[in-house]
Amino acid sequence: MENHATRPHHVAVVGSGPSGFYAAAALLDADLDVRVDMFDRLATPWGLVRAGVAPDHPKIKSVSAQYDKTARREGFRFFGHVHLGEDITRDELLERYDAVVYAVGSQTERRLGIPGEDLPGSIASVDFVGWYNGHPDHVDLAPPLDTERAVVIGAGNVALDVARMVLLPEADLRATDTADHALDALVASSVREALICGRRGPREAAFTTTELRELADIDDLAVDVDPEQVPAGIADDDTLTKGTRRNLEILRGFAEKGPDPAAGHRMVFRFLRSPVEIRGDGRVEEIVLGVNRLETGEDGRTRAVDTGERETVATGLVLRAVGYRGMALPGVPFDDETGTVPHEEGRITGRDREYVVGWIKRGPTGIIGTNKKDANETVRHLVADLADRAPAERDDEHRAAVESWLRERCADLVDQTGWEAIDAHERGRGEPHGRPRVKVVDREELTKLSRP
Length: 452
Ligand code: NAP
Fold this sequence. Notes:
This is ferredoxin--NADP(+) reductase. The protein is α/β, with parallel strands linked by helices.
């Protein structure tokens, strides 16, 4: 057998969010000579940690320090402003790399499928979250904040994020890295109430405990939970998970206390409510909610069933936070039903050298840390496959040749040094104002900053 121990393996990771970075770290940790090139269609790395996590959660965002460490390791390179399917193709990657890992997340929204869903003022959380976080695709969103009440559809953590962001006191907002265009709009906003509608009951809500608990600490915020929907003793049920019991205790606490009438902002929770229709003349003016009851299906899952009763709520802004959805990558298999890439423990079904990690692998669930275990599973198989195979014959100039090819293809290419320059600039602008950073959102400016 040929000895190929002296030739390194080259792996491309497409996507630089948490799952991409955990995959890169696991690869560099493996007992194998490997080089990792990571690509992102944006100039900036970190995926949802930069463009998804709410700006008032800096502790969660601080996980980026781990990704920085990985990025500085020998054998790792970052290339931003590289769009797979536009600037380069899958075939071209497979020609240049021994394996390709897709870590592209879930870049679009789940649809409600109701009349009025696309009226101006009805906004998917993926767009709204991208807007306040300075994602270049969403900078021009201009959500209508000239309304007293926002209605948030969904009972998950993203629903809580967007509800908090429209209600946070100015001082709290100003201490964050919320993109400046959104900061100004949110400070000037007329929104005083966010009505969060869960289609099932409080037991079935997808919030995590820390996120519910912290609501009590927000200044000038009244939390309004209907005591009839979370009656005394609701948490005393051994069949519930510890997390659900804690959530119910917190919600019951809010219901018992009652909303503070002096507070300037209100977060209202209403369960057993589904959006039925969004109405308005040229923009959102009201939403019709259907009242549900719960039923347990044959599969044991609790389902919301429409009672036929309707409620109409006046609002100028509907934020749809009912989950994200993956998008197909050109040339890569895709399951339209689940919005994910079909795979066996991370090996893409029917493909030899292609792998998936993160939300495009398992769907849009779990917290950031979940991606570590998920990426480790994929990389375990990837490393076993690489160890079984001689890396393609390549000369010493291979890495340099790949970089030249990228520079030729992508006029705005941003490399790791370029990103570090952007990062330093943003942090420097934030420091005098006690903010973690002031984000740059303009593609040309980002490119310029990245140049020596
Ligand atoms: P999620 O946790 O899946 O919640 C989606 C919510 O939308 C559920 O309440 C779901 O109700 C509801 N929903 C779905 N389809 C609906 C419809 N047609 N009509 C009405 N309601 C509908 O999704 P997410 O909030 O987007 O969060 C995604 C993942 O990121 C989650 O794992 C979340 O925990 C995580 N995340 C974590 C943090 C954090 O740790 N701070 C912050 C943000 C996000 P059913 O249950 O009835 O389907």
